[in-house]
Design a protein that fits this description.
The chain has 20 helices and ten strands. It is α/β, with parallel strands linked by helices.
């Protein structure tokens, strides 16, 4: 929050997805209104007419009082009553039609917000989503969008109608008698002070509640996704403790907003009574009919006092509508700020530069560190140099945490190096737009998603124009012969409630998508890790045949994959320590040879003494 109470969007490089500030929210709201301006103006006009029709009734009641006091007959009273009935009917019809138009406006605008959110979410770099966590994005796309939609559909029309009624009623009281109008407005001042107190505190409280709900969603989804791991390692108590902490934080945030309402609503209820009492007291003192006295300067008729009191009594209904929606408006404003904040997040680049001149990939002096929130995060890659030749099959191996997957992400353009460059055809990979990037490099990881759809549609994602023959060829290439056993073949529905696929089959579907996408460079980040050894070997050999002439970079923990590669790159502690063919590296007896012997269960060889080497340089004494 700024000093003036205005929200400020976080920096774009924050680990959290940004939140739009008040100016951005106002501009976004104005833009949405302009997109459906005729409906908005129509609803506003009908609300104004409905409010105007509602003003006639109390004024006529005052006329009835004065007429009866002056000895008027029943006919005059009947005529006034008929007009009151007609005005009430007109107010009801105008209000209902205004609400219908307002609801249609709200639904159309809500659809635009949802479509915009989907477009913005799809344009987010994967690295931004990973840093923020899927819980935050999920909360924005579900509860936040729902809150905004509810406001547009329900709160918006109600508030417009109520606001118009309040303005017209206060204006009518002043028109009848300025002194009584001043008494009424003065009596309503308590609502102004209570609402101002509330609005100063509510935005920050509701933003905190939204953030706490996002954290809770992230914790619960992570716990559910890793349920088997939690059970296998006996982490139940630890995860329960984490969940309890998140729930407690969300509960405290919710209690904070509830405590604000417990102050606002009682203050408002008391303030409804004050103006009516003030008008009756002052009007009674000034009434020309009080005590049977004659009218004097400043005196008001009894009918005027009654009309003013009725008008102020009517204020409770529209003010209730406004104030009851204040919570929803504050909550939805915070939700709208979070939804609109996605527009401030870094987006995938729209590439308009030169097309890569060839398929050659160059990694030059690359260093990279994940954003950990520390002032100087530790580099997980340090000074990596690597050239991947077109058509080469390169295996990247090394111990866990060596930086293999990070290197794969940089090669695929998912992340941008902190220092150095990663280029394809002399063009930085991270600068390529999504369409151009897919034609150049595709990254396949262990994480795959099977949509609730047919087998065919799950594969057409990669190549919408692919024929059934091409789809079956891609499935055969990755060894997915189980497709023939499905009840309806390619038309079989997959997913929850239908035919479920395990991790290995989901991986095969992902590999088949890659075959259909047909990129010139394919990065496999342990993409066959969930396959059994025989199926994995079959899939890798089939892919090698299908992708012949293309570049394949396999980040693997199975060294059999490295043995089949043209070259092997060995990573250790963020550095590229060895590079060469499998046979050459085994013969060299370095780190790769040690990994190879460990993989095959052979004992480590003791280091051999170095052979004496001739040197043209003079010998130097050893350092002590």
């Amino acid at each position: 929050m700024t000093a003036g109470g205005e929200r400020r969007a976080p920096a774009a490089d924050s680990a959290h997805l940004p939140v739009a500030g008040a100016p951005q929210v106002r501009r976004a709201a104005a833009r949405l209104i302009r997109q459906d301006g005729r409906a908005f103006a129509g609803a506003l006009a009908l609300n104004v007419l409905a409010a105007a029709a509602g003003l006639i009734g109390p004024w006529l009641v005052g006329r009835i009082v004065n007429t009866v006091g002056a000895g008027g007959g029943v006919d005059a009273v009947d005529r006034y009553a008929l007009v009151i009935l007609m005005c009430a009917l007109a107010q009801m019809l105008l209000g209902r039609y205004a609400r219908l138009i307002g609801h249609r406006f709200g639904e159309r605008t809500s659809a635009r917000i949802r479509e915009q959110l989907v477009d913005r979410a799809l344009a987010l770099p994967a690295s931004a989503v990973e840093r923020a966590g899927t819980g935050d994005l999920t909360a924005r796309g579900t509860s936040d969008v729902t809150a905004v939609s509810t406001t547009l559909r329900d709160a918006g029309p109600d508030v417009f109608i109520a606001a118009a009624q309040v303005l017209f009623i206060v204006g009518a009281v002043f028109a009848l008698d300025p002194l009584l109008g001043g008494c009424g407005v003065l009596g309503l001042s308590g609502i102004w002070f209570a609402t101002r107190w509330y609005l100063r505190r509510a935005p920050a409280a509701y933003l905190a509640e939204g953030e706490a709900n996002s954290v809770l969603a992230e914790v619960l989804s992570a716990t559910a996704a890793g349920a088997r791991t939690v059970e296998a390692f006996g982490l139940q108590e630890r995860r329960v403790a984490v969940c309890r902490t998140a729930v407690e934080r969300a509960r405290r945030a919710r209690l904070r907003t509830l405590s604000l309402r417990t102050v606002l609503f009682p203050a408002v209820e008391v303030s409804y009574v004050v103006p009516v009492v003030a008008v009756l007291l002052v009007g009674g003192l000034l009434s020309a009919d009080a005590g049977g006295g004659a009218a004097g300067p400043g005196a008001v008729s009894l009918g005027t006092v009654v009309s003013c009191a009725l008008y102020l009594t009517q204020l409770s209904h529209p003010l209730d509508a406004v104030l009851l929606w204040v919570e929803q408006l504050q909550s939805s404003e915070a939700s709208f700020a979070r939804v609109e904040g996605l527009g401030l997040a870094p987006r995938l680049p729209r590439y308009e530069g030169p097309t890569p001149s060839d398929d050659r990939i160059e990694v030059a002096r690359v260093s990279y560190a994940y954003d950990s929130g520390r002032a100087a995060p530790r580099d997980v890659l340090r000074g990596v140099d690597l050239t991947v030749r077109p058509g080469e099959r390169l295996a990247v191996v090394g111990p866990s945490g060596a930086g293999k997957s990070t290197l794969g992400r940089l090669l695929a353009g998912v992340d941008r190096p902190r220092a150095g460059s990663v280029t394809v055809g002399t063009v930085p990979v991270a600068d390529l737009g999504p369409d151009e990037l897919r034609r150049q490099v595709v990254l396949v990881t262990q994480e795959h998603h099977v949509f609730i759809d047919t087998v065919r549609d799950n594969l057409l994602i990669a190549a919408p124009a692919a024929t059934d023959e091409e789809i079956r060829a891609a499935l055969d290439a990755v060894g997915a012969d189980w497709i023939d056993e499905l009840p309806e073949g390619l038309d079989t529905e997959l997913g929850a409630g239908e035919v479920r696929v395990d991790g290995a089959r989901a991986q095969q579907l992902a590999l088949a998508r890659v075959v259909l996408a047909d990129p010139h460079t394919l990065i496999l980040d342990e993409a066959t890790a969930l396959l059994d050894p025989a199926t994995a070997r079959h899939a890798e050999r089939a892919l090698a045949a299908v992708l012949e002439g293309r570049t394949v970079i396999a980040i693997a923990h199975r060294l059999d994959t490295a043995r089949d590669a043209d070259r092997v790159a060995v990573m250790d502690d963020g550095r590229l320590t060895e590079l060469g063919t499998h046979d050459a590296l085994v013969a060299a007896g370095g780190p790769y040879a040690e990994l190879w012997r460990s993989w095959h269960g052979e004992p480590s060889r003791p280091p051999e003494p170095p052979e004496p080497q001739e040197s043209s340089e003079p010998s130097r004494p050893a350092a002590t």
